[in-house]
Design goal:
The protein has 435 residues and is an alpha/beta fold. 49% of the residues lie in helices and 15% in strands. The protein is built from 19 helices and 11 strands. The radius of gyration is 24 Å and the shape is globular.
Length: 435
């Protein structure tokens, strides 16, 4: 995308947000990566505003387009992409963000489009001024009495609203859909190989609270750039949701055990397991993509997880290197439990991907089964809210592998549990099995 000069009256935050939105929808860039590249030189206050504007606009695209279509007689699909991006950004600020006088928000967003597409200034100005007068009333007229209406109100694809309606029931689906547009809980895991929870809590620049049932977990009660901090660089902490931390706890690894971690990158769970076994044992961490495997190695080095051996390989391939006491299967999934922290994910996922990924998950789980020692435990984990990738995968596995017992399983939901949506199942292999 060619660089565009922006009039000085436009705030750096809005200019940055527009670039992120355009890169996401016009170039297919991931929103978080586009933001990291575009916001690198911003002051903290501008960075925070740019994130709120860009992520919010991307997240609320469905609702914003519904409102925009009612404010103009031009088909949205025929608008130049930068014009549509400017309209979406302006609508989000007017309808959802607040904190800026409507006339100022209109003027700045009109100024944004002036240099890129001067012929569209009149259109953008008219749409946003109407939105300032009528937009809140339009939002108030929306409801979620059906999946179709809920998809518009809560800004998700229609197929996803329909799926959750069917699998969770109307009341639970409505609550979940309301939650996926709220800010995600910010949590971190203290690396007990090098520090303690009390020490890290005392060094944090924001208040925090203990994560229930997770001695190494802290929930942050204020904004904090974890990955830019000294605590992160020195391996004291890892940004990780409470749901993700629970996975390694359910695995229950013990010092001296041999652990297999399949689809291990980016390494949050891998290094958590290393801490739980106190670096006393062996963890074989398998990752298929060489670049992700290299990043995993760097994470393990930063987190002082010296017991981890990273292996580039296909997790769905049967192993010939002996048996393991614990196996973690964390396969690729649709990620539908992480919509709060990944604003563009809902627009990337196709309904067909659920079945495709479920088949892959089943193959990886079957390959893992043969590597588990008699009496050993296997945990299957996916960060999604999709029956086909969770209960159905485990059910199909148990019908084939009669020597495995389902000990525990749970489905975490953001609106109910306050953390990412995860399905986690713990399986035990019978002690009498002979490989």
């Amino acid at each position: 995308m060619p660089a565009t000069k922006i009039h000085a009256r436009v705030s750096p935050a809005r200019a940055c947000a527009l670039r992120v939105i355009r890169r996401t929808f016009e170039e297919g860039a991931y929103a978080d990566r586009a933001f990291a590249a575009e916001a690198s030189g911003l002051e903290p206050r501008d960075r925070a505003l740019a994130m709120a504007l860009s992520y919010g606009t991307i997240q609320r695209r469905g609702t914003l387009d519904h409102v925009a279509a009612r404010l103009t007689d031009r088909p949205l699909g025929r608008l130049d992409p930068p014009v549509l991006a400017s309209i979406r950004l302006g609508l989000f600020e007017l309808l959802y963000l607040g904190g800026t006088a409507p006339h100022a928000a209109v003027n700045e967003n009109v100024e944004l489009v002036k240099r890129a597409r001067p012929h569209a200034v009149g259109l953008v100005n008219a749409v946003l001024r109407r939105a300032a007068r009528e937009g809140q009333e339009m939002l108030a007229g929306l409801d979620d009495r059906s999946p179709e209406h809920a998809a518009i109100l809560h800004s998700v694809p229609g197929w996803l609203a329909g799926q959750w309606w069917k699998e969770l029931g109307a009341e639970e689906a409505r609550a979940l859909l309301r939650a996926v547009n709220e800010p995600a809980e910010s949590a971190l895991r203290v690396n007990t190989l090098v520090s303690t929870t009390d020490d890290v809590a005392a060094r944090l620049p924001v208040p925090s609270r203990a994560a229930d049932g997770l001695p190494e977990g802290l929930v942050l009660e204020g904004p904090f750039g974890i990955e830019g901090s000294d605590l992160w660089a020195s391996g004291h902490v890892q940004p990780q949701s409470r749901a993700s931390m629970l996975v390694s706890r359910m695995l229950g690894p013990e010092p001296g055990q041999r652990v297999l971690d399949l689809c291990a990158a980016p390494g949050g769970k891998t290094t958590h397991v290393a801490a739980l076994i106190e670096n006393a044992g062996e963890i074989v961490a398998v990752e298929q993509h060489p670049g992700r495997a290299a990043a995993l190695e760097r994470t393990c080095a930063r987190m002082r997880a010296s017991c981890v051996r990273v292996e580039v390989g296909d997790a769905a391939t049967s192993r010939t290197d002996g048996q393991f006491d614990r196996i973690l299967v964390d396969p690729p999934c649709t990620g539908l439990g992480t919509l709060q922290s990944r604003p563009d994910l809902r627009w990337r996922r196709r309904p067909e991907a659920i079945g495709e990924l479920a088949a892959l998950q089943g193959r990886i789980l079957a390959a893992a089964a043969g590597a588990l020692a008699p009496g050993g435990a296997l945990v299957y984990s996916v960060c999604t809210i999709s029956r086909a990738e969770s209960e159905d995968v485990i059910g199909a596995f148990l019908r084939v592998h009669g020597d495995f017992l389902l000990e525990e399983h749970l489905q975490l939901l953001p609106h109910r549990d306050g953390t990412d949506g995860f399905f986690v199942a713990r399986l035990r292999r019978g002690p009498g099995h002979v490989a």
